[in-house]
Design a protein that fits this description.
- With 249 residues, the chain is of the alpha/beta class.
- Helices cover 30% and strands 21% of the residues.
- The protein is built from 8 helices and 12 strands.
- The strands form 2 sheets. It has a 6-stranded mixed beta sheet.
- Helix 7 links the parallel strand 11 and strand 12.
- Helix 4 packs across helix 5 and helix 4 packs across helix 8.
Length: 249
């Protein structure tokens, strides 16, 4: 049975021509089961343009949210799911039947589902590189997996260490290293987080939320030392399908 409902979805972000979401959902909607659905990019230069976007597109049914608006969009929403409120970041927006905007986070779900098969008993603690919206979903997932973590940033703050403090002892204590920064994304594929990569071993997991390129310099460097590596592609698939379920429930 063909779904003849015309429904519009899209991605909110900045400089998102590379968008995974648009390609993924456009391909999904090419299936005759989903004919009538469409997906487009809403590339805005600053979050203050969000209200005008909503006003000018009253027929929208749902949005994904990407860098840099996962946190900035929250004040513009009417309500948040319990988990999105706890995480403090939103990557999925549902337009309710009453015309309200409700924020959800499916990043944590996608990350958790993609990391879990890699975990072994010696993977005890995690380093999260970056402190943006994506890192908050990762931290929430690690909490659910009972894996302690520490954030790394360019500036040390309370409960955050800076890159200069990372050494051999750090790698002994943290067996999962997760890149939540955009460093290494195409076209700047030779860049990588500032780490002493020589301390990676076959007891480590190197996880990069980046999916383009499929193997970032961060992952290449870790792989050379025997680490298990994982990019963000599966995470994106899982979070996208979770968003689709939210839009349709």
């Amino acid at each position: 049975m063909v779904d003849i409902l015309k429904r519009r979805f899209g991605l909110l972000g900045r400089n998102i021509s590379y968008s995974f979401s648009k390609g993924y959902f456009t391909e999904k909607f090419n299936d005759e089961v989903f004919l009538g659905n469409s997906y487009e990019n809403f590339d805005i230069s600053e979050i203050n343009h969000f209200s005008g976007l909503i006003k000018n597109n009253p027929d929208l049914n749902g949005l994904n949210v990407t860098i840099p608006y996962k946190e900035q969009v929250i004040p513009f929403l009417d309500t948040l799911s319990k988990k999105a409120a706890l995480i403090g970041a939103v990557n999925t927006i549902k337009f309710t039947k009453k015309g309200k905007l409700k924020g959800y986070n499916t990043d944590y779900y996608g990350f958790k589902k993609s990391l879990k098969p890699l975990l072994e008993s010696h993977h005890k603690k995690a380093l999260i590189l970056g402190t943006g919206g994506a890192s908050k979903g990762v931290a929430f997932a690690l909490d659910e997996l009972n894996i302690p973590y520490t954030f790394v940033s360019r500036e040390a703050k309370e409960n955050i260490i800076d890159y200069d403090l990372i050494n051999a002892t750090t790698f002994d204590n943290f067996q999962i290293i997760i890149n939540c920064t955009p460093v290494g994304t195409s076209p700047n594929i030779e860049a990588c987080p500032n780490l002493p990569y020589e301390f990676f071993t076959d007891k480590h997991i190197a996880y990069d939320l980046i999916y383009n390129p499929a193997e970032t310099q961060f992952l290449k460097n870790a792989k050379e030392k025997g680490a298990i590596i994982k990019n963000g592609y599966d995470m994106l698939i899982f979070q996208a399908e979770k968003a689709w379920k939210i839009w349709n429930k």
